[in-house]
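Just curious: can you write a single protein's sequence together with how it folds?
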Amino acid sequence: MKRAAVALLRVLVVVTAGCIGGGNKGPTESESPSGNINFASYGKGQVLGNWAKLADTSKVYVSEGYEDLARHYFPNAQILFASQYDGGIAILSPKDARTALRGKPILITVNDYFGYIVYRLGLKLVGPDKGVVAVFNDNGKAHIVFTGTSKAGAGAALEYAMGLKKGEKVKVDDVVRSGEFEGVVLKVIGDNDWDGIPDDGESWYLTSFSALEPFIYYWRVVEGENVTVSGGFIRLVNGSTVYIHALGFNVSIKVENPKNKELTYVIENINPRYVEVTGKARSVEMGETEIKVVSSSDEVNIAPKDVTDYSIIAFGDHRPDGGTKPPEVFLRIRDKINDDEGVFIIDGGDLVYTGRVDEWAELLKEWRWNKPIFVAPGNHEYRGEGINVFHMLFGPENYAFSFGKYRYIIVNNVENNYGLSDETFKWLEEQMKLAVEKGERPVLVLHAPPVDPRPNGEHTMGPEDGKRLLEMMKAYNAFGVFSHIHLYWYGEEDGVQMLITGGGGAPLYAPPDQGGFYHYVRMYMAANGTISPEPVKVEP
């Protein structure tokens, strides 16, 4: 099997930066591969960097089903059963790694929704694309463990280690060093068949990271085809099937220099009744919220049909008041929204309480919608390990799409003291200008509002950025959809129309006669730019 390039020529990556260092210097004193590693002889990252010099590579302990990884990465080694492992090199399944890494600073655990996950110094990392390299002493022997949340993750750990053996550098900031333990967490993007071995027709992006994961939203090599997506992000590739989460109603798939390989595209989070598929396709199947296209063409497009008046649904703030379980009233609101009309749903954020993986798991068990849903980040979920889960599920934090005579602009304003960077303000104004040029009215969707309608209320964006946002909205006749304040309010501020819908299940902030009731909002979007909100009360 030929090896594919483990690099990307063109990527769009959201990734935390790390210091490069921890060169692969030799040990300061000789050590036996079969004995303890003298960790004191090495700086941070140097144990990992020198793993090949510290290991006895003549034998490898391997979990069942991972033997091909051992043969690929250690072709001359004796392969032994993982059940016999008591030191040396091991290639372990997540199930077997749970025992081998128990009590270590990096370990494998399990969640009843996400399956196997990596636990790194209190941070849980989900997804089958995670690898782990762990080096430690135990019972007088050195242990060098290659594992992950799946076979692909274990292969990523091995590929990373072979790169270190060839002289690649360790990102020291990503390394966990504690006593006689040193380890690193990895992410692989592009192992399309999830077998842990780079193949022809694949292009891997492989890196270590400490907290924030890298994401490549718009590009993959699939069966040797160079696939680029706009108007959505690539959520998953499995073999020759590309799963695309739509970020609106205009999704474009292009294949550069096509080799005429037949690929399957599953476009999720779409409303098939309101779009048309163009481009050569062998088959097109329409589901409730997805479209499946089988094509060998160089281009497939999903475009919105012409619409005039229509309605959408908006709501937000459906987190619990602590714990992991979604509020019961949120489940009733979900069911009523699914029974209601509306082309799509806007969710203003605050989905879970603290962003912890266990909270996300409970929410996702109930995350069932029969319409597309577009989510703005809320301050409760967009923190800690919740940031990674948010991006995995919903993609980029800022994006825009047009439908009918409106352009919907989703923006993250829960960082920077509930503000926006100059770069984001510039992008936002560009989107509003584009809307006006196309004869569309901008509709902004952000979690925190620029104003609090309650007397002496201060649950808002930072004052300066809130003022700047209002001025910009007024200049472009933009309508605002916000959450964050747990009530219903619709009105104007300095001529700017806006809606606050924060009654999706979180504790209410006002009495019922002042908007403090659980609800969602029907929004009637007229072709002439008139927006008419109608709150729908839901009993707790």
